[in-house]
Every structure is written in C-alpha cells, then in structure tokens.
Amino acid sequence: VRGPREAHRVCTGYETETYLKQKVARLASTYAIASEPTSLTGWGEKQCEIWEHADPYLYLRTTKDNRIIVGGEDEDFRDPRRRDLLIPRKAETLAKRFRELFPDIAFETAYAWTGTFGETEDGLAYIGEHRDWPNAFFALGYGGNGITFSLLAAEIIRDALLGRRNEDAELFRFDR
Length: 176
Ligand SMILES: Cc1cc2nc3c(=O)[nH]c(=O)nc-3n(C[C@H](O)[C@H](O)[C@H](O)COP(=O)(O)OP(=O)(O)OC[C@H]3O[C@@H](n4cnc5c(N)ncnc54)[C@H](O)[C@@H]3O)c2cc1C
Prior knowledge:
5-stranded antiparallel β-sheet, 3-stranded mixed β-sheet, alpha+beta, single chain, 8 strands
C-alpha cells in the first residue's frame, strides 16, 4: 500500500504459514450446518448465540431469515480431501446434537460446509510486523474468532501505517 509508510500486508488466512519460518498456528478443520427456515420459539426467539465450551465444543446461532446455524465437531488436520469427505457425517452429528438440546424445534439441514482455521497456543491472533519481513504486516491465527480479530487487525495495522500508538498492538505482536 502507498501511504505515509510504504508496506505490504499479508492476510492470506491459513496459507500465511507458507511465508513464515516460525510456526505460529495449529491448523484444524471445523464444520457447520444451517437449517431450513424454522419457527423459532424459546431460545430461538431471543436471537442470542450459544457457545458450549466443552471439548468438542458446540455453537448455535440464528439468522435473519430464521435459520439455525450449528457448528463445531473440529478435526485436528487440514487435508481438504479428507476434511470434505467427512461433511455428511459431521452434518448428521451436529443436527443430532441440536435436536438433543432443543427437541421442540423442528430442524432440517439445508446446508453443510467445512473450512480450515489456525489456532494459536494462547488463543490470540498474531497481528503486526515479523522480524523476518521488514515492512510487511501480518494478520493471522484468528481461530474461530475472525469477526473480532479481523477488526482489531485492521485498526492495529492502520495505526502502524499512520505512525499512531495502538493500545492493543502489544497483545498481538509476534514476539509476545
Ligand atoms: C466453518 C467455519 C466457521 C467459522 N465461524 C466463525 C464465527 O462464527 N465467528 C468468527 O468470528 N469466525 C468464524 N470462523 C473463523 C473465520 O472465518 C476466520 O477466522 C476468518 O475468515 C479468517 O480471516 P482471514 O482474512 O485471516 O482468512 P480467510 O478468510 O481465509 O481469507 C484469506 C484469503 O486469502 C486468499 N489467499 C490465500 N493465499 C493467497 C495468495 N497467495 N494470494 C492471494 N490470495 C490468497 C484466500 O483465497 C482467502 O480468500 C469460522 C471459520 C470456519 C472455517
């Protein structure tokens, strides 16, 4: 980017490990399903997210068109072929876990998908410059929290480019 400081930004998701000698994230595969639109009662009416912090974890949320998204059932590998072959079985398990929790809500799976993500040892993303790559800014290792960490990354990298102090930058630096 051209600006007060000329720099490169690297935000290529889990492919980013290709550019770094330092191993910063553990790659895993995660699964999710979305239901057909359903009449939401009880929990559904409240439109809140549920996150079960067990191992394996489970999360549930609703959408604006009254679908229910259920996710989890992670696997500890990233091979895309092996990962995708498991979609039907994982979709069935996720639907079963939902029905056990909410037997009164009719749940029919409409979509099922999977993806790879990188988790770090302490659960925080890595954002900022790396000593091996002067003038390059990285943002990676979001785990399952890409919505929050990507916004923080945008703010931290914006401030670095503008030469401004960012209070969060310390938390996410590579040599923490
Ligand atoms: C199934 C699943 C469910 C999830 N659910 C949630 C959730 O509910 N909430 C949440 O906060 N997060 C969730 N996440 C995590 C979130 O999606 C990720 O943390 C986030 O998408 C990572 O963003 P990113 O920009 O780092 O990488 P990505 O979104 O993977 O984007 C990287 C992009 O770079 C491109 N790219 C790679 N290499 C190159 C190259 N050499 N040149 C050019 N382009 C390249 C890729 O094609 C890709 O488009 C989920 C992830 C998965 C897989």
